[in-house]
Amino acid sequence: MNTLDNNNKLVKRSTYHHGDLYRTLLEAAVQMARQGGADAIVLREVTRQAGVAPNAAYRHFADRNALLQAVSQAAQAALAVAIEREITEIEKSGDLVEDARARLRAVGTGYIRFAQAEPGLFGMAFSIPSDLSNADNPASAGASGLTPFQLLGAALDMLVAAGSLKPERRMYAEIFAWSAVHGFAMLLLEGPLRAFDKTQAEFIGQRLIDMVERGL
Amino acid sequence: MNTLDNNNKLVKRSTYHHGDLYRTLLEAAVQMARQGGADAIVLREVTRQAGVAPNAAYRHFADRNALLQAVSQAAQAALAVAIEREITEIEKSGDLVEDARARLRAVGTGYIRFAQAEPGLFGMAFSIPSDLSNADNPASAGASGLTPFQLLGAALDMLVAAGSLKPERRMYAEIFAWSAVHGFAMLLLEGPLRAFDKTQAEFIGQRLIDMVERGL
DNA sequence: CTCCGGTTGTGGACACTGTCAACATTTAGT
DNA sequence: ACTAAATGTTGACAGTGTCCACAACCGGAG
Fold it and tell me: How far apart are CA A191 and CA A184, in angstroms?
């Protein structure tokens, strides 16, 4: 019978029904994920913050894992937005090849920067067991309507269109580029590269993208 | 007052002290990790399988996380062994450059194959929070005494010695190669590439290594 | 407007977990 | 032989995810 007001303070709820509990629960879960990753999402605490009984969550999510999946999709969407932002900041040169390359770099850079800025969310984006491949799930998309994976694909298509990537090299190119950047982000966050500070990581990340450009 | 005999059957223990509880606990935890990753390691169940009271574990591990770290190191050691095995299966050509390249490929191939063969263990190898960089921790090493990271470094050194990798390109080369292969393994296990079967993964993995060779 | 079925939230319970403090047994060193 | 340290046990506690039965509310059919 309690809920959160606009300032996130607990307050008595007048209506028996919450109104928008699904979103409230999801947003609380996202905040927890930002702080400590998937392990930090605890069902009872989520409902507590929403001012609702623990079991109320089960009217909106089948179980805890369903909530985690929802957060995972939200995380992917946030990543997509971060990549889109990086893309818009490209200053166009007019040269088709150069612009296409800049776009690919922007995707990689946005990916790495997001991983550093939001490690908790990033960790959830691609590590939550979900049956279907939701690489094209709208819930995982950004403002452009594209998921991170699709944004990468689009950048590679531009590279082909610009003549900078041979069509016979196009197949699986997403996977190669993705693997490199994703692996780097993982090693940076919870691997042997944890000690690196932001500027180091930025520098090495750019070199990593160089390697991908050469190798694709 | 119970313990496991040689056939892993529960049996009454005659001695009050277990004898080798540390190893017994660790091995039980490793088996659980093989089946379900870090989440599958539950302290009480570990002690149960060892035929010992739950709190006995606290005489050997500060808390659950300490146990996870120990398993993580064991997982790294197992990975090192898998890579070493892949290396020994190289048929030497006599050509220095070719042999060095084969060695680098063996490291990557062993890495990917281990990830597929032991997904539970692999997931623990590099994703358990541990303060120190144990890239050179003997507990994480294989038969050769080298950790996976060091095995990769050695392969890259050979590549330089053979003249196939310019010395000015040597720096950070571990990170680049590692990132690509590690990211690929991650995407394969718990990412959008989950649907791929073993032969597909093997094929694409080899192409991925091609990219690294070109790009380094 | 009334009634009634479905939706949403509550209360109480259960089995299970990690961890703590106090105690018991065994081992090892003087 | 005696004592201190190491190792294992008992009992307890707070906290978790989930199940079942019940309560309050909402929207549409009559």
Answer: 9
